[in-house]
Structure to design on (278 residues):
């Protein structure tokens, strides 16, 4: 089976795969938010990533969806000089970004909801950096104004309500600090195919198989105005927005992943600044 990427739901055929569309797991659900539902979904996300932890590094370290469309554009928005900067890697998974940051001299803290992901990140970084289990839905137990920057790659969309996570991230950033966030593009082909309406914030669910591990994962798709509005309400100012575009070289390098992927927006990568008034 074709290895799929996060957070392009695995098995996604951008050109429209009728078999996939018929799959009972490939559907959208508009859900009423409530605390019980949110904690149940948190547990489902954690279980899914627990199961993926043993295969995460090998299936995502160098691929189209996590490297070319996610980590590469994220890296392009980071300061050139990282030595000595305190950086928080949120949703660190097995620490691929954390390791890259450590190699460049950053002082890295990585957090993730999945214990096996955190253990793998710890092992992989060989005692460098600090890694611990934390759920972004809960206030983070980190001191105020301790980080120069935060990276949050493909993680915030697991949460419906961003007030607590964005409040935590704002609080732990130093004045003028940066926050680089990647999300599925609200106009990605998967969204277009499965959403009710562009303007609805809704839960999309899909099934991924990576190196023989199959999981169902749900994430919240929201329109651009909702993304920008929530960050602005939290006290962030938008500094840069990238819509990574595949080059011919990328397509030649990953012909399997790129097959059927049009010249369309797939991910959105934002750099926010902590507003000086906050
Ligand atoms: C798409 S992966 C992140 C990829 C990673 N940044 C990388 O470059 O390999 C999303 C990660 O977010 C974590 N996650 C999901 N929900 C979370 C939450 N509520 N709090 C903290 N981490 C969460 C998952 O366990 C998973 O490891």
């Amino acid at each position: 089976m074709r290895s799929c990427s996060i957070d392009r739901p695995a098995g996604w055929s951008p050109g429209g795969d009728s078999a996939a569309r018929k799959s009972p797991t490939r559907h959208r659900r508009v859900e009423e938010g409530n605390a019980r539902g949110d904690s149940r979904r948190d547990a489902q996300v954690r279980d899914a990533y627990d199961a993926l932890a043993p295969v995460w590094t090998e299936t995502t370290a160098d691929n189209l969806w996590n490297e070319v469309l996610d980590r590469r554009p994220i890296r392009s928005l980071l300061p050139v000089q990282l030595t000595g900067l305190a950086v928080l890697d949120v949703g660190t998974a097995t620490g691929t970004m954390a390791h890259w940051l450590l190699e460049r001299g950053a002082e890295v803290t990585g957090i993730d909801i999945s214990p096996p992901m955190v253990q793998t990140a710890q092992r992989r970084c060989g005692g460098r950096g600090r890694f611990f289990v934390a759920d972004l839905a809960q206030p983070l137990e980190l001191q105020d104004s301790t980080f120069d920057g935060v990276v949050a790659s493909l993680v915030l969309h697991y949460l419906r309500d961003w007030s607590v996570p964005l409040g935590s991230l704002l609080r732990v950033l130093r004045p003028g600090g940066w926050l680089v966030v990647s999300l599925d593009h609200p106009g990605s082909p998967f969204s277009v195919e499965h959403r009710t309406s562009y303007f609805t914030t809704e839960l999309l669910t899909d099934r991924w198989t990576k190196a023989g591990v199959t999981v169902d994962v749900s994430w919240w798709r929201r329109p651009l105005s909702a993304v920008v509005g929530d960050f602005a309400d939290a006290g962030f100012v938008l500094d840069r927005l990238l819509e990574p575009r595949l080059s011919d070289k990328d397509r030649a390098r990953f012909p399997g992943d790129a097959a059927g992927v049009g010249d369309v927006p797939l991910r959105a990568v934002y750099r926010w600044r902590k507003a000086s008034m906050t």
About this structure: The pocket of S-adenosylmethionine is lined by residues 6-7, 42, 45, 49, 60, 66, 71, 91-93, 96-97, 112-114, 117, 135-137, 153-155, 158-159 (CB under 6 Å).
